[in-house]
Design brief:
By secondary structure, the chain is of the alpha/beta class. It contains 13 helices and seven strands. The chain has a seven-stranded parallel beta sheet with strand order 3-2-4-1-5-6-7, sandwiched between helices. Helix 1 packs across helix 2, helix 1 runs parallel beside helix 3 and helix 4 crosses helix 10. The protein binds guanosine-5'-triphosphate and magnesium ion (MG). Guanosine-5'-triphosphate binds next to helix 4 and helix 5.
Amino acid sequence: MHPLAERIQNQDMRALARAITLIENDDDDKLELMSDIFSIQKQAHYIGITGSPGAGKSSLINRLLTYIRRLDLTVAVIAVDPTSPFSGGSLLGDRTRMNQHFMDPGIFIRSMATRGSLGGLARSTKDAIRVCDAYGYDVVLVETVGVGQSELDIMKAVDTTGLVLTPNSGDVLQIFKAGIMEIADLFIINKADLPGVGKLKATLEEYMMIVQPKGWQPPIIPTISTENQGMQELWEKMSDHQTYLYETNQGRARREQQLKLEVYDLIREEIWREVRTEIEQDQRKQEAFHNPDADPYQLARSWFQNWMRKGE
Ligand SMILES: Nc1nc2c(ncn2[C@@H]2O[C@H](COP(=O)(O)OP(=O)(O)OP(=O)(O)O)[C@@H](O)[C@H]2O)c(=O)[nH]1
Ligand SMILES: [Mg+2]
């Protein structure tokens, strides 16, 4: 077993942090580590919290953490790419908001910024979630700003996705266009102290009438993070969704689909890693890039076939 995996199994928090760094850096022994991590995987509930910048995701998570801890469950929080231009410097804000939790050994908080990695942001995040799971956390919460494809992909890798909306912000249409509505398992109307809650609720209900989801009906939960309101209902609905996933055929089908996508992704990453390494180490191939008239289709095809033949 990979030494880091063994230490993580023994709840060594420094090993946990090291492993996530190794994942971020796309280290050579990442796959070996992850395979070992997978073999010690526990049964954490993976929860994604997404929504527009400033919707109150971090404030909400902060309150939820307190609530979950009172139930004697342990929690890891992964804040994805908080330095992106979309959420400008909110890590500092998150630190202040979640500060009270830093001394609690039942809570682990970590941010990730891994745009450059081979498998992409979603891949690295999923690996980081698994490492937290192997460590033994009961719940793994992931915060992302719901823009871009990679954020969408992250949400496909968790069990339960909560979409945070705010009344009167007019972000529903944008979120709708970005395809985020479809992946939401829970609609959270945060800042429910502001006017417009009823209207937003009606819009969401209308939306659900049109799409008519089979099986799970996403509940609409109003919350006021600043006043610590709605956390009990939110947590209950999250738990209900986890039960749904494990006890129904639709839930099982969804997990099977996730497994398939993940295997495809990993194969793609593996092939790309190998082919790219070979091309980068081949002087003659590198020279071919200097020719401005080179046919990219022809190069890609012949080099790929080249690489395939080598494996025979
Ligand atoms: N009125 C009101 N304000 C809130 C509520 N929840 C959060 N806020 C405020 O909204 C602002 C943004 O909160 P954050 O928790 O940083 O939002 P976020 O979604 O994590 O933001 P990013 O990570 O930057 O995308 C802060 O000023 C919060 O105090 C709420 O329920 N009601
Ligand atoms: Mg935040």
